[in-house]
Amino acid sequence: MEVELLDIRQHMGGFPPFDMIDDDLLDEVAGQIEVAYFKAGSDILVYDQEIHHLCYIRSGAVEVYRRNGDLYNWLDEGDIFGHFGLMRNNRVRFPVRAMEDTLIYFIPEVLFEKLCESNDNFADFVELERPRLQATIEEQKKNNDMMITRVRKLVSRYPLIVAASTTVQEAAHQLTESQVSAVLVVDSMNDAPRYIYRDSEARPWQVRGILTDSDFRGRVVAKGLPPETPVGEIIGDRLIVIQSDESVYEAMLTMLRNNVHHLPVMHRLSPIGIVHLSDIIRYETNSSFYLVSNIFSQVNAAGMARLAPDVRAAFVSMVDEGADSRMVGSALSTIGRSFTRRLLELAEESLGPPPVAYCFMALGSLARDEQSIVTDQDNALVLADDFDPDEHDAYFAALAGIVSDGLNTCGYPYCKGDIMATNRQWRQPLSVWKQYFNDWLNDPTPERLLNSSIFFDLDAIYGDSLLVEELQELIAEKAAKKPLFLAAMALNALNRTPPLGIFRTFVLEQDGKKNNSINLKRRGIAPMVDLIRVHALACGSRAQNSFDRLDDIDQTQLLAPGVSDNLRHAFEFLSMSRYRHQVIDIKQERPPDNNIEPENVSDSERHHLKDSFQILDYAQKFLRFRFPMPAE
Amino acid sequence: MALFAKAAAPDWPQYLAQRAATARDARLARFFAAGTIAPDTPINEAPLVALDMETTGLDPQRHAIVSIGLVPFTLNRIALAQRRYWVVRPLRPLSDESVAFHHITHADIAQAPIIDAILAELLEALAGRLVVVHFRHIERPFLNTTLQALLGEGIQFPVIDTMSIEARRYRQSIWARFRRWIRRPPVSIRLHNSRMRYGLPAYQGHHALTDALATAELLQAQIARHFPADVPIGSLWR
């Protein structure tokens, strides 16, 4: 009698890569495993021993070492090891020791090979260096809101319905009256109707087809048919529909596949509405659009401040609906820019027109289009060179004051480092700004650049954008030729390092120290931004957004193949992880921050965070090597 | 050697040899003839087999075996591929309470063979291996009583009892006496609770095969924590 080892199968089926394996094969694996217990501190695999099993951690935790004894990795429940050895001469490359009392399931080599052969995902998982993060990011991309939102959400009205005997003229008249572009055509019941419409007296009709605006052109006028022609004679015999619980994405695909612009939406057998391609397009661009137009209709800072809950709501729904970090970051940045712009418009209304041309400049995350819901204001003013401090500065000081105070009211607190246009140092004509940048570029020391890296993410928000573009130009042209500057920037980019990962209920540092929470911005996102910036400056990129910068870096040979993709995935995951935890904070009615608490971290998130930190760690090591301090 | 001179353990090699010579049933004779390993064999060299039975109650005279699970193993590896599992039809009818407990239904049992039909396979799987159970007053007495009724001759063999290893550690130690003295409840030595102490995962209990696997893992853990890997089996068997 064959017994399902249900408990074992279900456990393995819950962790990658076994979650991609079908049940029959998983049963076979569960039935063939060997089990062994290892006391904390005992060796599980020693270097160079022969290996003929893939090892799966059922419970406990292990440490993986390099040959030289350095800690390489730690793994716990649901993780696998030994696959590198299996694929390379059946010798253990990385010794493994139990950190806790550990139960290991050993999967025989023949089954390991069978798993690799029968399932590409499994093979990718064990063969590629760090594929699970990538797989997850790609999965999330597909899962944006179009994937999750049901198509019924787009249905705003009941469909217009006419009988097949209606004349085309009458049908056209009804379409015009109702201001819609399509009508469903119903006919008396036949034996096996596919879709059924019940009229107001509950009489059933079969749904025969759809008649759209363009049919009047193509099927009536072009064919020279008279206005009295019954619609039943001109409609096509195929009816493409979508069920109301399908995703918006599926609706879009159905339209593309069948080359139709209208889709009747069915609840089981009955029509509940018609969606048009434009409904889908409008839906996709909807939410932050509304918010931005609302910002511009406000007449004072207090009115704008009242929109703060809407900003949070838009943020929460974007994250919940599966938007990726670029969508969230750019939506929040668009909102941030809109606040700033509207405040400047209002300031100009009250102060009068500016005496000389100026550009209000965003710095840091706003310039990179990577804002989060927790952000302070970083901005500056670049003034035209005919600026005369004695004559004009009072105006711009007042302008900066209005904007800065307004932003503070709207939920963008003052910058603690005083990098704001209200600070006279950062309210200067273009020539002075050029001097600042030339000083940083020509005479760099890590100390001088320590607080200046934020100025290397810069973008125009309002005013004469040429003023800021000249600065972007200057940086892009000169930075790549300044090895000392790049080395100083690189050195500063290494100031903040990632932890090893999150383990059970604590954050495990590289040196084995344990902490209770982690500031994801400081320990993940900011160091990642810093290191991408150094590479971008080194290749003369003008991009500000980190993903755009990586695209530019890809055009060069600065990074080994695959590295920039790893960085993209890690950056995406870290950014989304921060957004998700800010959403948790908001939902639990706590002020959102950049910290994540280990108890709020799911198993898979824990794994992906670890992978992301490791990618960052490697990238930092490479940065140090790539941009060494030139000899004196 | 003092270790296996314990009064509780009979001289198993001698007993098995004697039964091999006198058993009437051929299957039993083969089982006894396979004998057992020498008492001074280190545990990490001994072929073991974890055995678990689900029964309709605790009294071999009144209750019956309904399923048998076993997993051969050594101290280094438990070989699930060699696992065996049988549902058997008891000679007495099944009470409703025990059905609820084991999830083995009347219908399952009605179609199952009586133990006589699987006895050869069962004894072959046990032969030459040292049996490991959790709580030794079930499997051996039930099998003995069943075979007495069926064949007119019983069966005995050495077992390692993981529950009594737990009891010695957690019920008879100074620490356990101290707990009694301060009126703390004794620690549980049931299979599930014992496993928790070694960081072993919680398995779905009350399935003879799962419990056999759970027992095998528990012995690996107990030896790793409390004994040298080469402790002679004669000091552990009962």
Task: Briefly characterize the structure.
The complex is a heterodimer of chains A (632) and B (238). With 632 residues, chain A is of the alpha+beta class. In chain B, helix 1 (12-22) runs antiparallel to helix 2, helix 2 (26-34) packs parallel to helix 5 and helix 9 packs parallel to helix 10 (208-226).
Commentary on this structure:
The complex is a heterodimer of chains A (632) and B (238). By secondary structure, chain A is of the alpha+beta class. Chain A has 24 helices and 24 strands. Chain A folds into four domains: 6-127, Jelly Rolls (Sandwich), CATH 2.60.120; 150-276, Roll (CBS-domain); 287-436 and 452-464, Beta Polymerase, domain 2 (2-Layer Sandwich), CATH 3.30.460; 490-626, Four Helix Bundle (Hemerythrin (Met), subunit A) (Up-down Bundle). Helix content of chain A is 46%, strand content 17%. Chain A has a four-stranded antiparallel β-sheet with strand order 1-8-3-6. In chain A, strands 2-7-4-5 form a four-stranded antiparallel β-sheet, with no helix packed on it. Chain A has a four-stranded mixed β-sheet with strand order 9-10-12-11. Chain A is flat, with a radius of gyration of 31 Å. Chain B has 238 residues and is α/β, with parallel strands linked by helices. Chain B has a single domain (8-228), classed as Nucleotidyltransferase, domain 5. Chain B is built from ten helices and six strands, in the order H-H-E-E-E-E-H-H-H-E-H-E-H-H-H-H. Chain B has helices spanning 12-22, 26-34, 96-102, 106-111, 115-126, 139-151, 162-170, 174-181, 191-197, 208-226; strands spanning 48-55, 65-73, 78-79, 84-87, 130-133, 159-161. A five-stranded mixed β-sheet of chain B has the order 4-2-1-5-6. Chain B is globular, with a radius of gyration of 18 Å. Mean pLDDT of chain B is 86; it is low at 1-6. Chain A binds chain B through residues 1, 3, 5-8, 11, 30-39, 42, 58-60, 100-103, 106, and chain B through 69, 73, 76-81, 83, 85-87, 198-201, 203-204, 209-210, 213, 216-217, 220-221, 224-225. Chain B: Keywords: Exonuclease, Hydrolase, Nuclease, Nucleotidyltransferase, Transferase.
